[in-house]
């Protein structure tokens, strides 16, 4: 944790809405969807081992967090319903994800669209899903 960086004061996992709510010592608080946290996991599986090695995470719309364990004074390690549990989210990272949420989420959706990928576990792109169901969602 960076010296003087805001520290978490409260963390709540909301299982029904699938949102992690985190409040910080500077008075800011964020509501981070589980899907967002999963697709921006700091793990090597997601981020790769260097720039340009990131792996697009698809089919994570319904992912949940089954547990979240503290990692010392450093951060949080969630276990997701898809079995992913190798990402350690530092407090600094969670704060940055909160402040940059709108931009990061838009970037993720753009990458998904460019790849023709789906947020749904079926793996079908949204356009195919709409045709199959007889209309747009």
Structural account:
It is a single chain. With 137 residues, the protein is an alpha+beta fold. The chain has one domain (8-133): NE0471 N-terminal domain-like, CATH 3.30.2020. The chain contains 5 helices and 6 strands; from the N terminus they run E-E-E-H-H-E-E-E-H-H-H. The chain has helices at residues 34-39, 44-47, 91-99, 101-115, 126-133; strands at residues 8-14, 19-24, 29-33, 65-71, 75-80, 89-90. The strands form 2 sheets. The chain has a 3-stranded antiparallel β-sheet. Strand 1 (8-14) and strand 2 (19-24) form a beta hairpin. The longest helix has 15 residues, at 101-115.
Under CATH, the topology can be stated as NE0471 N-terminal domain-like
Please provide the count of β strands.
6
Counting DSSP H or I runs of 4 or more residues, the number of helices is 5
β content, as a range? 15-25%
Low-confidence stretches: 126-137
SSE succession: EEEHHEEEHHH
Largest sheet: 3 strands, antiparallel
Q: State mean pLDDT (0 to 100 scale).
A: 87
Structural class: alpha+beta
How many whole angstroms does the radius of gyration measure?
Answer: 16 Å
């Amino acid at each position: 944790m960076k010296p003087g960086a805001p520290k978490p004061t409260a963390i709540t996992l909301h299982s029904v809405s699938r949102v992690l709510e985190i409040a910080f010592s500077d008075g800011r608080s964020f509501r981070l969807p589980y899907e967002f946290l999963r697709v921006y996991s700091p793990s090597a599986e997601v981020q790769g081992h260097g720039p340009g090695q990131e792996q697009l995470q698809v089919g994570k719309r319904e992912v949940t967090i089954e547990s979240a364990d503290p990692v010392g004074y450093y951060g949080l390690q969630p276990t997701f319903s898809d079995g992913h549990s190798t990402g350690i989210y530092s407090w600094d990272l969670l704060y940055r994800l909160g402040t940059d949420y709108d931009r990061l989420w838009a970037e993720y959706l753009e990458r998904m669209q460019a790849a023709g990928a789906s947020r749904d576990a079926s793996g079908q792109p949204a356009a195919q899903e709409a045709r199959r169901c007889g209309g747009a969602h």
